[in-house]
Amino acid sequence: MTNTSQAKFVDSFGLRVPIVQGPMGGISGAGLVAAVADAGALGILPIWANDVDQAVSSIKATQALTSKPIAVNLRADLVQLGHIDAALDAGVSIVHLFWGDPSSSMPAIRRAGASMIATVWNEDSAQAALDAGASALIAQGVEAGGHVYSDIPVQELLPIVLNIAGDIPVIAAGGCATTVDAINRIDQGAAGILCGTRFVLSTESDAHADYKRALMDSGENGTARSVCFDDFWSDAPHRTLANSTYKAWDAAGQPSAGNRPGEGDIILRTPDGIDFPRYHVMPPSRGMTGEILASAMYAGTGASRISDCIPAAQIVEEFAAAL
Ligand SMILES: Cc1cc2nc3c(=O)[nH]c(=O)nc-3n(C[C@H](O)[C@H](O)[C@H](O)COP(=O)(O)O)c2cc1C
Q: Ligand 1 pocket: which of 148, 298, 306 to mutate (most atoms <8 Å of CB)?
């Protein structure tokens, strides 16, 4: 470990290494989060799309696999106070907020003495998170897989956020797939790195095998940031593989809901028999059937630089050895 901000980040959050596994709805479940935590990095469990009871079950399932600290991921714009209370009651002490100003969630987080980490995408959002009392910031650049507000590369965003963050650690996210990517961000002053897509391609991730294969086969321009898959969460930009659904929608002039090609087709079915239509935000996970490759396969631009699917601990070790 080379810089003091890295040391501060790992000390503040009880980690061994300054590496974060990005929360990934439907993909980063108990097995992945616990494996990352056991490896000494920060695993973040997404619970924002669950009801409170499901969220608590998911936290308890993760805690049953690891005694290390984990964080939970909630949406700032939804001000999910019931989820925060339930998570803190279950012993979680780190809350990660994304998509909005975290200030309305802070009283609930402070009450139990927990820490808040916020994803930020420009100077204003970073300032709002600092004013709210964030203990660390995640600067998420436009390269990121999943939902991404930012429209500038992480290399440009990072100095903007570092400039106002003072001694609050800033973690770089977006397109960080290899140790070279990670070193570039650390050399710019990041206190650590956050990876999403790299952990989709881990043994423990819940991603469907066909989704994993599509990521490994993707080329340099294989992803697109758009509002294509917006059923359940409208007008929220996200980066996915540019698959058949995206290409048909793009060729049709990116029409809005009601006028999209193949709209209403059921393309995913869960093992419990729950169906999802073509433009739904749901990514394909283990056990799902249907047109896996036509669904929302979230991917950062770094996907083209990943060619293997390996245990999460090995991913953490490879990054840790380079930092
Ligand atoms: C499959 C997938 C699902 C995601 N879901 C969420 C989510 O539920 N909450 C969130 O804060 N970020 C989510 N993200 C964003 C990641 O946490 C992270 O910021 C992003 O993946 C980093 O960029 P990278 O994929 O290029 O490494 C998701 C990303 C992916 C790839």
A: 298
